Amino acid sequence: MSGFLGSSLGGSPPSTPVDMAARKEAVMNSVRNEIALTNAQELMNKANEKCFYKCITKPSTSLSGSEETCLSRCLDRYMQAFNIVSRTYVSRLSKERLEHRAE
Fold first, then answer.
1. Which 3 state secondary structure label does DSSP give 18?
2. pLDDT tens, 7-64?
3. Secondary structure of residue 28 in the 3-state scheme
4. Residues 24/5, Cβ–Cβ less than 8 Å
5. How far apart are the C-alpha atoms of 19 and 68, rounded to whole Å?
6. Which of 5, 56, 70, 90 is deepest in the core (most CB within 10 A)?
């Protein structure tokens, strides 16, 4: 019976290094995707919380025009900041990977 990442039990032949590398990469990609999703959820939760406290001064059953405008601008700023940080981070990671491969 083959277990997680190809550990073998019961006489099955061991996985090849190529199989192990592919499985490791698949697991790493899955972890990266989960982290990205968690980060996006955290961003939205934080943005909603901060913008609500900033823009909604008198909670009621509907939003006023100024509250809608404030919320829209506030969330837009959060998303712009997130996009700038994300692009910079991805660029830095790519640069580090290239430097690491060059060594």
1. helix
2. 445 545 567 888 888 899 999 989 989 998 998 899 889 999 999 999 998 889 999 9
3. helix
4. yes
5. 53
6. 70
